[in-house]
Structure formats: C-alpha cells, structure tokens
Amino acid sequence: PLLPVQPGVANDHSVHAAHHRHPGTNVIPGRVCAVPGILGGMALFDIPVHTLQGDDSSLGAYAGKTLLVVNVASKCGLTPQYEGLERLQQTYGDRGFTVLGFPSNQFMGQEPGTPEEIQQFCSTTYGVSFPLFEKIDVNGEDRHPIYEELTAAPDADGNAGDITWNFEKFLVSATGEVIGRFRPQVEPEDPAVIDAIEASLTA
C-alpha cells in the first residue's frame, strides 16, 4: 500500500475522497482561508534556509510571488506529482508564481539521496525547473522553522498540525500568508489548487 495505516495518515478511502467535494456542502477539500500562523505574514519570508546546492536563502527571495511549497521525495508512490508541479510552474511561472520543493526523508526513507542525486533525478526524470531546497525535517523535534509556520495552517476540514505524507502542498500569498493547504493526495492540477492559485494571482 502507498500509505501506512496509522493515526493522522490518509487511508485508501480518503485518497479517492480527496478529489471530490464533500456531499451536500460547498467546501472544496484542501482549500483553507488565510491564517496568520505562528509568526504571521512577512516573518515567514525571514526564516533562513539553504538551497539544495547549500547556498544561503529564504522564502523572502520570492516575496511578491504566489508560492506553492511542497515537501517532495524521489521514491514515493506520489513522486509522479512532480509532473503536475512542473506543469503548474510552466503555466503560471511568468505570472508571479513559483513552486518551491523541500525534500524530506521522514516518510519511510523515500528521499535518501544526496543533494546531487536529488537534483539529477528531478531534472532528468521530470524536467523540474522550479527551485529545490535542502533536505529538511517537516515533522518532529527537528522540524524546520518554515514548517513550524506552515503546519499551523489548517486544511479544509480544520485540521492543522503534522504533515501526513510526501507532497503536502501549502499555498502562500505574495505577502507571506498561508492561504491554502492541500493534503498529499490532492493532485497539483486539482481544480481546488488551480482555483486557489488563480485567485491569488488576480487578488
């Protein structure tokens, strides 16, 4: 099975349910309203992080753009989502949008590679052109401060907290607010994601 059965991790039923509206409601799964988070607004842009090549950076380098921040992995059943993420990059990249990928090896060791191996895999297998950052922890005691901020945002069901698997997606506004949280099984080109990106770009 793709995902282990454990509390807080989607099972096979929710994998399919994630693509559909809840019956009798107008709620789109994965969509949330803007929340201030722990640090709030521009502070998210001030947190230091390293690029995949080891250079100093921060999300502030992308201030003014709508960001889709994703924890990625090379050996996951969801790894083909790289294709959809790259299509989003190609479609919206010239409109003030970028995907940002954060490799993490926390989910069954599915990102074991070195930075060079990760870069080569992403470039040669999926033609990834969006920025990739250093391998980090997204849960637990060593959770990166960026993910301390991001995981304070709830999903459409009101659930905040830990990342549930690889390829969880956070939409961040041009001013640094988390305006959407999409669980891993929500495809990059799901209408909920597309609608949220386009709404942010035209806001």
Envelope shape: globular
Helix/sheet category: alpha+beta
Query: How much is the radius of gyration in Å?
Result: 16 Å
What percent strand?
Answer: 5-15%
Helical element count? 6
Task: Give the biggest sheet.
Answer: 4 strands, mixed
Helix share bin: 25-40%
Distance between the termini: 40 Å
DSSP summary, beta strand count: 6
Low-confidence stretches: 1-41
The average pLDDT is: 85
- Largest sheet: spatial strand order: 4-3-5-6
Order of helices and strands: HHEEEHEHHEEH
Task: Summarize the SSE layout with pairings.
Blueprint lengths: L11 H6 L25 H4 L1 E3 L5 E3 L7 E7 L8 H12 L4 E7 L11 H12 L18 H6 L18 E4 L5 E5 L8 H12 L1
Describe the structure.
By secondary structure, the chain is an alpha+beta fold. Helices cover 26% and strands 14% of the residues. Strand 1 (48-50) and strand 2 form a beta hairpin. The longest helix is centred in the middle third of the chain and has 12 residues, at 81-92. The protein is globular. The N and C termini lie far apart (40 Å).
Feature tags:
single chain; alpha+beta; 203 residues; 26% helix; disordered N terminus; 6 strands; globular; two-stranded antiparallel ribbon; 4-stranded mixed β-sheet
Short structural summary:
With 203 residues, the protein is of the alpha+beta class. It has helices at residues 12-17, 43-46, 81-92, 115-126, 145-150, 191-202, and strands at 48-50, 56-58, 66-72, 97-103, 169-172, 178-182.
